[in-house]
Amino acid sequence: MRRRSKPDSLTILLVRPRLIGDVILTTPAIRALRRRFPDATLLYLVESLAAPVVAQNPHISEVVVMERRRGWRRWLEDLRLAQRLRRRGIDVAIDFHGGPRSAWLTWATRARMRVGYDVADRRWMYTHVVPKPRGYAPRHSVQNQWDLLAPVDAAFRHPPDRTRDRIEMPVAPDARAAVAARLESLGVGSRDHLVVVHGTAGNEFRRWPAASFATVVAALAARGTDYVVAVLGGAGDESTVMEIVQAARAESSIDARFIPIVGWPLEQVRALMDRAGLFVGGDSGPMHVAATTDVPIVALFGPTTPETWAPWRPEHLPLAVIDVGALPCRPCDQRVCEPGDFRCLRQIAPETVVSAATRLLEGTR
Question: What is the C-alpha to C-alpha distance for residues 51 and 23, in angstroms, rounded to an integer?
Fold first, then answer.
């Protein structure tokens, strides 16, 4: 654990347990707090799965990791964690999540300033509440989370800037070295053009068909023998990744090059993005990881909207956002597909994605 503080300086706790993309989208606020309070001790409370996002963040003094448990073990762990946080003498606690667990832990710090969203059954846990965006307002998540900084200092009443307040996920040297070694073992040379395609998703609502991904993968690999397409998936996604790879091989010439990448540690996925010349994928954690770099991105949106979830980074960086446009059921809460056919994603044609990817690879937008 890394610590950086001075006597009598503020101790600020940021609470955002999960998910990977959501934690990434808090990093502009982290940078802004450090800029405003250079001598503060900044603590970040996060679950272990998303902890690599902030583990190397230079603006954070200490990352406090908690596990995602259920039942009585969770309550016992939370009580112990609350005691630890209470002993830290926290001055300001900001709840970026707003769920019952994060709200309770924020309250349990007994910080003199506790900031959170104005949610009916939880507002009493905070000293300062911020209006929570209702419904599906077309406003970016980074801006929504930035609102929570305003009670802390008047300087945060100005909106975040995509260039000054970029999302970030620094890479440790050992992760970069590990990726270089893995790519070499997979036959990827320094002169090869690497394209990363994230072909899976955590739920069916965000899952573009494997056959559509296979068509895109085959088309990108066909650009030449110096092109390598890596099909990326998390732990447990091996069957989907291999389905895409095998279908792409069936559509391609014998010289086409594909590699499956499954279950790599998150910090290595981040290092992989630095090596890539293009990323293609849906609204997911890996898309936001890619957005912390300068890699060109083709982003597919289905039940979510780019107005809220598009990559947050400088506008000059190459980005193609693809969706089906307006639908009566879009956006949705991703619990029930009203039409029943997941049309918001499945109506996106592979040819549209290939065309966008080709434009970015050739330096046109």
Answer: 9
